[in-house]
Amino acid sequence: MASKKVLQALNSQIQKEFFSEYLYISMEAYFSEHDLDGFSNFFNVQAKEERDHAYKFFNYVNKSEGKVILEALDQPRVDFSSPLEVFELALDHEKYITKSIHELLDLALEDKDYTTASFLNWFVDEQSEEEESMSKIVKKLRLLNENPAGLFMLDQELAQRAYIPPVV
Length: 168
What we know:
This protein is 76% helix and 0% strand. The chain is mostly helical.
């Protein structure tokens, strides 16, 4: 069973993952408002994945005989100036989540909680993928420099992203 300190940190991570979902829904709404359906789809899928991540932590806390304590979510940002700004903020947010996962892993290892450390390794790998994905889109958007034809093409590319529910 995880220590009280580790369980508290895991509960904090649940809140961060649900906030991530909320933030990405806000970004989805921005793109939907601007009829960029592919960009909107990208963040719809991203939000669903973040919800899945929150539930992975939720289920782990329960399996560890801990108590899930849901914290209030702050209102996410709703106004953005450009697609590039949205993705830069999303990349910064993913870096924040990565740092949080690394701190959780450090705490688990410090506590000699190898079961939790093993559980967290999936998230370490996942965050590497998340940052890479956001970074690639940021680089593409910088190259496009808001060129309408390029944005249209990227919108079409992002429309292809599909949500794949996790295997339980």
